[in-house]
Amino acid sequence: MADSKHRRPIIIANWKLNGTQAFVSDLLTGIHQQWGGVHKAEVVVCPAHVHLAQAANEALAYSNVAVGAQDCSQFEEGAYTGDVSAEMLHDLGCQYVIVGHSERRRFHHESDAQIARKFDLVHQAVMTPILCVGESPEQRQAGKTLAVIKRQVTAAIEGCGIEKMARCIVAYEPLWAVGTGITATPEQAQEVHEFIRTLLGDIGQCVRIVYGGSVKPDSAQTLFAMPDIDGALVGKAALDADSFIQICRAAE
Ligand code: 13P
């Protein structure tokens, strides 16, 4: 991390729709065994909902690993079959909740307004929302990247108020990099991160903005060296303790 940064680096593992209870135990044990050398970075793991209680209990053994959820309901409580509320997640020991991941926007047609509502509920439940934003390959090719990012960030600001943005993490995850093996260059990511910070105005300097999209051990260091990249949201490379810890160490 660049020395000029006063924001604590944060590395978040998004395990997506993967694993069994045994896999969760093995992965957390592997992270614990290789933990040496991770002092400065905050580390968060986001398993599937059904593994959250287990992960929260097991991660307690490693004081530096926090647990987050991959999504929450846009409703507080009531007749919403299959939903899991922000309050329930907090009750299980979660400290973070990812909202607006591109896979939720794409496969579940979540709108900016629904995402803003989830963001607000995560706040109300005294957890930290991780707001994902990012453009499609077509939008990038058409030169619309910054316009798309502005729309997504502004929807959260307008829906929740700028004060609440001060306690959130923004994840820039370009769709053309998520799960494709293609990592944005440090310069491409830095341009968007700097823009997001500007959109946040006065509070921008305090908000951690992380990059996600095919982050690997060999690309992490150069990404984290950029002034506005405060960490990473890691998918595939976080399913292996060794590569995940290497990424965490790169943020030191
Ligand atoms: P990959 O690291 O597998 O590209 O996934 C990124 C992501 O979507 C994290 O939320």
Describe what this molecule looks like in 3D:
- There is one protein chain.
- By secondary structure, the protein is α/β, with parallel strands linked by helices.
- It has a domain at 82-252: TIM Barrel.
- The protein contains eleven helices and eight strands.
- It has helices spanning 21-33, 52-59, 86-92, 102-107, 112-124, 137-141, 145-160, 162-165, 186-199, 217-224, 241-250, and strands at 10-14, 42-46, 65-69, 96-99, 128-133, 169-172, 208-212, 231-234.
- The longest helix is centred in the middle third of the chain and has 16 residues, at 145-160.
- The N and C termini lie close together (6 Å).
SSE topology:
Layout: E1 10-14, H1 21-33, E2 42-46, H2 52-59, E3 65-69, H3 86-92, E4 96-99, H4 102-107, H5 112-124, E5 128-133, H6 137-141, H7 145-160, H8 162-165, E6 169-172, H9 186-199, E7 208-212, H10 217-224, E8 231-234, H11 241-250
Parallel strand pairs: 1-2, 1-8, 2-3, 3-4, 4-5, 5-6, 6-7, 7-8
Helix pairs in contact: 1-2, 1-11, 5-7, 7-9, 10-11
This protein binds 1,3-dihydroxyacetonephosphate.
1,3-dihydroxyacetonephosphate binds at residues 14, 101, 173, 178-179, 212-215, 233-237.
